[in-house]
Write a structure and sequence with these properties.
By secondary structure, this protein is α+β, with helices and mostly antiparallel strands. Helices cover 29% and strands 19% of the residues. The chain has six helices and twelve strands. The strands form two sheets. A nine-stranded antiparallel β-sheet has the order 3-5-7-6-11-12-10-9-8, sandwiched between helices. It is globular and about 60 Å long.
Protein backbone atom coordinates (compact mmCIF):
# COMPACT_ATOMS: atom_id res chain seq x y z
CA UNK A 1 0.00 0.00 0.00
CA UNK A 2 1.21 3.48 -0.87
CA UNK A 3 -1.16 6.42 -0.51
CA UNK A 4 -1.66 9.66 1.42
CA UNK A 5 -4.45 9.90 3.98
CA UNK A 6 -5.99 13.04 5.47
CA UNK A 7 -6.18 13.56 9.23
CA UNK A 8 -9.27 15.76 9.79
CA UNK A 9 -8.30 16.43 13.43
CA UNK A 10 -5.09 18.25 12.53
CA UNK A 11 -5.89 19.13 8.91
CA UNK A 12 -2.72 17.36 7.89
CA UNK A 13 -1.72 14.55 5.55
CA UNK A 14 -0.13 11.23 6.52
CA UNK A 15 1.93 9.15 4.09
CA UNK A 16 1.01 5.47 4.30
CA UNK A 17 3.85 3.46 2.76
CA UNK A 18 3.75 -0.18 3.79
CA UNK A 19 6.38 -0.96 1.14
CA UNK A 20 9.00 0.68 3.36
CA UNK A 21 8.33 -1.85 6.12
CA UNK A 22 10.04 -4.48 3.98
CA UNK A 23 13.31 -2.63 3.55
CA UNK A 24 16.11 -5.20 3.95
CA UNK A 25 18.77 -5.02 6.63
CA UNK A 26 22.07 -4.47 4.87
CA UNK A 27 24.95 -6.90 5.52
CA UNK A 28 27.62 -5.45 7.78
CA UNK A 29 30.34 -6.06 5.19
CA UNK A 30 28.54 -4.43 2.24
CA UNK A 31 27.31 -0.88 1.63
CA UNK A 32 25.25 0.10 -1.43
CA UNK A 33 26.53 3.69 -1.14
CA UNK A 34 30.20 2.75 -1.51
CA UNK A 35 31.92 2.66 -4.93
CA UNK A 36 32.13 -0.89 -6.20
CA UNK A 37 28.73 -1.87 -4.80
CA UNK A 38 27.08 -1.86 -8.21
CA UNK A 39 24.45 0.59 -6.92
CA UNK A 40 26.42 3.82 -7.37
CA UNK A 41 29.14 5.03 -9.77
CA UNK A 42 32.64 3.77 -9.12
CA UNK A 43 33.86 7.35 -9.14
CA UNK A 44 31.85 10.18 -7.57
CA UNK A 45 32.25 13.08 -5.13
CA UNK A 46 28.61 13.79 -4.26
CA UNK A 47 25.76 11.85 -5.82
CA UNK A 48 21.95 11.74 -5.95
CA UNK A 49 19.73 8.83 -6.88
CA UNK A 50 16.11 7.80 -6.43
CA UNK A 51 15.28 6.07 -3.15
CA UNK A 52 14.85 2.31 -3.59
CA UNK A 53 11.97 2.30 -1.10
CA UNK A 54 10.18 5.61 -1.62
CA UNK A 55 7.21 6.87 0.35
CA UNK A 56 6.39 9.08 -2.67
CA UNK A 57 6.86 8.33 -6.35
CA UNK A 58 6.22 9.70 -9.84
CA UNK A 59 3.88 6.84 -10.72
CA UNK A 60 2.01 5.99 -7.52
CA UNK A 61 -0.69 3.33 -7.35
CA UNK A 62 -4.35 4.28 -7.16
CA UNK A 63 -5.36 4.70 -3.50
CA UNK A 64 -7.52 2.01 -1.95
CA UNK A 65 -11.27 2.60 -2.12
CA UNK A 66 -11.57 3.61 1.54
CA UNK A 67 -12.73 7.25 1.36
CA UNK A 68 -15.74 8.46 3.36
CA UNK A 69 -17.28 11.87 3.88
CA UNK A 70 -14.60 12.52 6.51
CA UNK A 71 -11.66 10.37 5.47
CA UNK A 72 -9.92 11.44 2.27
CA UNK A 73 -7.04 9.98 0.30
CA UNK A 74 -4.80 11.05 -2.55
CA UNK A 75 -2.10 9.28 -4.57
CA UNK A 76 1.35 9.20 -2.98
CA UNK A 77 2.77 11.33 -5.77
CA UNK A 78 6.10 13.04 -5.26
CA UNK A 79 9.83 12.45 -5.12
CA UNK A 80 12.15 10.70 -2.68
CA UNK A 81 15.86 11.01 -3.34
CA UNK A 82 19.02 9.94 -1.54
CA UNK A 83 22.01 12.30 -1.54
CA UNK A 84 25.43 10.79 -0.87
CA UNK A 85 27.86 13.19 0.75
CA UNK A 86 31.07 11.36 -0.12
CA UNK A 87 32.32 8.01 -1.47
CA UNK A 88 34.09 7.45 1.86
CA UNK A 89 32.06 5.15 4.11
CA UNK A 90 32.92 6.79 7.41
CA UNK A 91 33.74 10.41 6.47
CA UNK A 92 31.14 12.75 7.96
CA UNK A 93 30.35 16.40 7.21
CA UNK A 94 32.77 17.95 9.75
CA UNK A 95 35.60 15.89 8.23
CA UNK A 96 34.93 17.03 4.67
CA UNK A 97 36.68 20.03 3.16
CA UNK A 98 34.67 23.21 2.65
CA UNK A 99 35.23 22.85 -1.11
CA UNK A 100 33.68 19.38 -0.99
CA UNK A 101 30.67 20.53 1.05
CA UNK A 102 30.20 23.36 -1.46
CA UNK A 103 29.66 20.65 -4.10
CA UNK A 104 26.97 19.19 -1.85
CA UNK A 105 25.29 22.61 -1.56
CA UNK A 106 25.43 22.92 -5.37
CA UNK A 107 23.82 19.48 -5.74
CA UNK A 108 21.05 20.40 -3.31
CA UNK A 109 20.45 23.54 -5.35
CA UNK A 110 20.33 21.61 -8.62
CA UNK A 111 17.82 19.15 -7.19
CA UNK A 112 15.63 21.97 -5.82
CA UNK A 113 15.50 23.50 -9.30
CA UNK A 114 14.73 20.18 -10.97
CA UNK A 115 12.13 18.88 -8.52
CA UNK A 116 10.14 22.13 -8.48
CA UNK A 117 9.60 21.80 -12.24
CA UNK A 118 6.84 19.31 -11.44
CA UNK A 119 3.75 21.42 -10.74
CA UNK A 120 2.32 18.72 -8.45
CA UNK A 121 5.18 19.13 -5.98
CA UNK A 122 4.35 21.78 -3.36
CA UNK A 123 7.21 21.52 -0.87
CA UNK A 124 10.81 20.36 -1.20
CA UNK A 125 12.36 19.15 2.04
CA UNK A 126 16.12 18.53 2.30
CA UNK A 127 17.16 16.67 5.43
CA UNK A 128 19.64 14.34 7.10
CA UNK A 129 19.12 11.72 9.79
CA UNK A 130 22.39 11.00 11.55
CA UNK A 131 23.06 8.28 14.10
CA UNK A 132 21.33 5.22 15.51
CA UNK A 133 19.58 7.38 18.13
CA UNK A 134 17.37 8.83 15.38
CA UNK A 135 16.84 5.49 13.63
CA UNK A 136 19.49 5.67 10.91
CA UNK A 137 20.22 2.21 9.48
CA UNK A 138 22.87 3.23 6.92
CA UNK A 139 26.08 4.60 8.48
CA UNK A 140 27.46 5.88 5.16
CA UNK A 141 26.99 9.69 5.37
CA UNK A 142 23.98 10.71 3.33
CA UNK A 143 20.87 12.82 3.36
CA UNK A 144 17.51 12.77 1.61
CA UNK A 145 15.20 15.03 -0.37
CA UNK A 146 11.40 14.68 -0.35
CA UNK A 147 9.14 16.45 -2.81
CA UNK A 148 5.67 16.49 -1.23
CA UNK A 149 2.37 17.02 -3.09
CA UNK A 150 1.24 19.14 -0.12
CA UNK A 151 2.80 21.62 2.30
CA UNK A 152 3.51 19.66 5.52
CA UNK A 153 2.07 20.97 8.76
CA UNK A 154 5.21 22.46 10.35
CA UNK A 155 6.29 24.45 7.26
CA UNK A 156 2.65 25.44 6.79
CA UNK A 157 2.46 26.81 10.34
CA UNK A 158 5.72 28.72 9.82
CA UNK A 159 4.38 30.13 6.56
CA UNK A 160 1.23 31.29 8.33
CA UNK A 161 3.32 32.99 11.02
CA UNK A 162 5.50 34.63 8.36
CA UNK A 163 2.43 35.94 6.56
CA UNK A 164 0.74 37.29 9.72
CA UNK A 165 3.91 39.09 10.82
CA UNK A 166 4.42 40.55 7.36
CA UNK A 167 0.86 41.87 7.25
CA UNK A 168 1.13 43.31 10.76
CA UNK A 169 4.60 44.90 10.62
CA UNK A 170 5.71 44.89 7.01
CA UNK A 171 8.80 42.95 8.09
CA UNK A 172 10.08 39.40 7.72
CA UNK A 173 9.47 37.47 10.93
CA UNK A 174 12.79 35.64 10.75
CA UNK A 175 14.71 38.84 10.05
CA UNK A 176 13.16 40.35 13.17
CA UNK A 177 13.98 37.19 15.15
CA UNK A 178 17.62 37.48 14.11
CA UNK A 179 17.68 41.11 15.27
CA UNK A 180 16.50 39.98 18.71
CA UNK A 181 19.08 37.19 18.82
CA UNK A 182 21.90 39.54 17.81
CA UNK A 183 20.83 42.06 20.43
CA UNK A 184 20.66 39.37 23.14
CA UNK A 185 24.03 37.85 22.08
CA UNK A 186 23.75 35.11 24.73
CA UNK A 187 22.37 32.45 22.37
CA UNK A 188 24.65 33.05 19.37
CA UNK A 189 27.21 30.29 18.81
CA UNK A 190 29.12 31.83 15.91
CA UNK A 191 28.54 33.83 12.76
CA UNK A 192 30.24 34.84 9.53
CA UNK A 193 29.49 37.35 6.80
CA UNK A 194 26.45 35.52 5.44
CA UNK A 195 25.12 33.15 8.12
CA UNK A 196 24.46 33.04 11.83
CA UNK A 197 24.35 29.95 14.05
CA UNK A 198 22.36 30.24 17.25
CA UNK A 199 20.35 28.33 19.83
CA UNK A 200 16.88 29.89 19.56
CA UNK A 201 15.10 31.61 22.42
CA UNK A 202 12.39 28.93 22.07
CA UNK A 203 14.68 25.92 21.49
CA UNK A 204 12.81 22.66 22.03
CA UNK A 205 16.03 20.64 22.25
CA UNK A 206 19.04 21.34 24.51
CA UNK A 207 21.39 21.49 21.52
CA UNK A 208 18.89 22.38 18.79
CA UNK A 209 20.94 24.93 16.86
CA UNK A 210 19.67 26.91 13.88
CA UNK A 211 21.58 28.13 10.84
CA UNK A 212 19.99 31.18 9.24
CA UNK A 213 20.83 33.39 6.28
CA UNK A 214 21.60 36.94 7.38
CA UNK A 215 20.15 38.30 4.15
CA UNK A 216 16.52 37.76 3.31
CA UNK A 217 16.68 34.81 0.93
CA UNK A 218 13.94 32.25 0.42
CA UNK A 219 15.86 29.27 -0.96
CA UNK A 220 19.21 27.94 -2.15
CA UNK A 221 18.76 29.23 -5.70
CA UNK A 222 18.88 32.83 -4.46
CA UNK A 223 22.35 32.50 -2.94
CA UNK A 224 25.42 33.76 -4.74
CA UNK A 225 28.36 31.43 -5.24
CA UNK A 226 30.11 33.20 -2.37
CA UNK A 227 27.10 32.64 -0.11
CA UNK A 228 26.99 28.95 -1.02
CA UNK A 229 30.65 28.60 -0.09
CA UNK A 230 29.90 30.38 3.17
CA UNK A 231 27.00 28.00 3.82
CA UNK A 232 29.34 25.05 3.22
CA UNK A 233 31.78 26.42 5.78
CA UNK A 234 28.96 27.10 8.22
CA UNK A 235 27.69 23.51 7.91
CA UNK A 236 31.17 22.13 8.55
CA UNK A 237 31.66 24.27 11.65
CA UNK A 238 28.13 23.74 12.99
CA UNK A 239 28.27 19.95 12.75
CA UNK A 240 31.86 20.00 14.02
CA UNK A 241 30.66 21.99 17.02
CA UNK A 242 28.09 19.33 17.85
CA UNK A 243 30.70 16.56 17.49
CA UNK A 244 33.04 18.46 19.78
CA UNK A 245 30.54 18.65 22.63
CA UNK A 246 31.35 15.17 23.90
CA UNK A 247 33.97 13.99 21.38
CA UNK A 248 31.77 11.59 19.44
CA UNK A 249 29.63 11.70 16.32
CA UNK A 250 26.63 13.59 17.65
CA UNK A 251 23.27 12.26 16.41
CA UNK A 252 20.84 14.73 14.91
CA UNK A 253 18.07 15.40 12.46
CA UNK A 254 19.00 18.29 10.16
CA UNK A 255 16.08 19.95 8.38
CA UNK A 256 16.22 22.65 5.72
CA UNK A 257 13.30 25.09 5.47
CA UNK A 258 12.70 26.97 2.23
CA UNK A 259 9.71 28.50 0.50
CA UNK A 260 6.95 26.24 -0.87
CA UNK A 261 6.88 25.76 -4.65
CA UNK A 262 4.02 25.78 -7.15
CA UNK A 263 1.78 27.28 -4.48
CA UNK A 264 0.84 30.69 -5.79
CA UNK A 265 2.19 34.10 -4.83
CA UNK A 266 3.88 33.89 -1.41
CA UNK A 267 5.04 37.52 -1.57
CA UNK A 268 8.62 36.72 -0.60
CA UNK A 269 7.76 36.02 3.04
CA UNK A 270 9.79 32.84 3.68
CA UNK A 271 13.35 32.99 5.06
CA UNK A 272 15.96 30.26 4.49
CA UNK A 273 17.01 28.43 7.64
CA UNK A 274 18.24 25.05 8.80
CA UNK A 275 17.18 23.52 12.10
CA UNK A 276 18.98 20.74 13.95
CA UNK A 277 17.01 18.44 16.22
CA UNK A 278 19.61 16.48 18.23
CA UNK A 279 18.07 13.89 20.59
CA UNK A 280 20.78 14.10 23.28
CA UNK A 281 20.25 16.22 26.42
CA UNK A 282 23.67 15.32 27.84
CA UNK A 283 26.63 13.14 26.91
CA UNK A 284 24.80 9.88 27.63
CA UNK A 285 21.14 10.79 28.08
CA UNK A 286 18.49 11.01 25.37
CA UNK A 287 15.75 13.63 25.44
CA UNK A 288 12.77 11.50 24.54
CA UNK A 289 9.67 13.01 23.01
CA UNK A 290 7.13 11.65 25.47
CA UNK A 291 3.41 12.31 26.00
CA UNK A 292 3.48 16.09 26.24
CA UNK A 293 5.65 16.50 23.14
CA UNK A 294 3.96 13.80 21.09
CA UNK A 295 0.36 13.95 22.25
CA UNK A 296 -0.05 17.68 22.82
CA UNK A 297 2.83 19.12 20.74
CA UNK A 298 3.75 20.91 23.97
CA UNK A 299 7.53 20.71 24.12
CA UNK A 300 9.54 20.99 27.31
CA UNK A 301 13.23 21.78 27.18
CA UNK A 302 14.89 20.51 30.39
CA UNK A 303 17.77 22.99 29.97
CA UNK A 304 18.19 26.76 29.62
CA UNK A 305 19.11 27.81 26.05
CA UNK A 306 21.45 30.53 27.32
CA UNK A 307 23.44 28.00 29.39
CA UNK A 308 23.63 25.45 26.57
CA UNK A 309 24.66 28.18 24.14
CA UNK A 310 27.73 28.84 26.27
CA UNK A 311 28.50 25.12 26.21
CA UNK A 312 28.15 25.14 22.43
CA UNK A 313 30.42 28.17 22.08
CA UNK A 314 33.12 26.31 23.99
CA UNK A 315 32.63 23.29 21.70
CA UNK A 316 32.94 25.58 18.67
CA UNK A 317 36.28 26.92 19.92
CA UNK A 318 37.38 23.36 20.58
CA UNK A 319 36.54 22.37 17.01
CA UNK A 320 38.37 25.40 15.59
CA UNK A 321 41.49 24.51 17.57
CA UNK A 322 41.23 20.94 16.29
CA UNK A 323 41.13 21.85 12.61
CA UNK A 324 43.88 24.45 13.06
CA UNK A 325 46.10 21.73 14.47
CA UNK A 326 45.49 19.31 11.59
Amino acid sequence: MAEIRYNPLTKDWVMVASNRQNRPQMPKDWCPFCPGSGKVPDDYEVYEYDNDFPALSKNPPTPDDVETNIYKTMPSFGKCEVVLYSPEHTTTVPQLSVDHIKKLVDLWTERFVEIQKDEYVKYIFIFENRGAAVGTTMPHPHGQIYGYPFIPKKPALELEAFREHKEKTGNCLFCDMLKDEVEAKSRIIFENQHFIVFLPFFSEYPYGIYIAAKSHKQNLTEFTDEEKFSLAQTLKYATGTLDSLFDYEFPYMMCMYQNPVNSGDLSDISHFHIAFYPPMRSEDKIKYNASSETGAWAHCNPTAPEEKAEELRQAYEKFLNKIKGE
